[in-house]
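Study this protein:
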Amino acid sequence: MGLDMYLSGKRYLRSYDNQDAEKINEINEALGLGKLSGDIGDDIRAIAVKEVTVEAAYWRKANAIHKWFVDVCQDGVDECQETYVSREQLKQLLDTCRAVLADNSKAETLLPPQSGFFFGGTDIDEWYLGDITFTVDRLQYLLDSEELKDFDFYYQSSW
């Protein structure tokens, strides 16, 4: 038990888009689901994969990051719901984490830890700073990645 946190990247695939149709067929082939030909398919087993989801980031008991997502993206409602996170919000979190790393004395104000049942420690220590460093590295990669430019991001927690 504990606070598990997931940032997923999702991309909707359109069978009428040539590039997406190629991706659908690649995925279908890997899964043994048949090849599409237009919208109907030339194989009775053809099933159009409509969405690709990737695990963009995973945190465990990074309660300050969780609090940020709840406060900023979920309007303060923490019900383990999946919530859309815009790229602007990810950039905001990235900037906040960078500010905390640049001056640890700002952590309590900018990105305060949150207590909770199995949420982990609330000290601003090496574990806290490790979570912040990971978040900076991961968000920078996600925002810069050409491969993920067409993905939408969603946050969800489990505790």
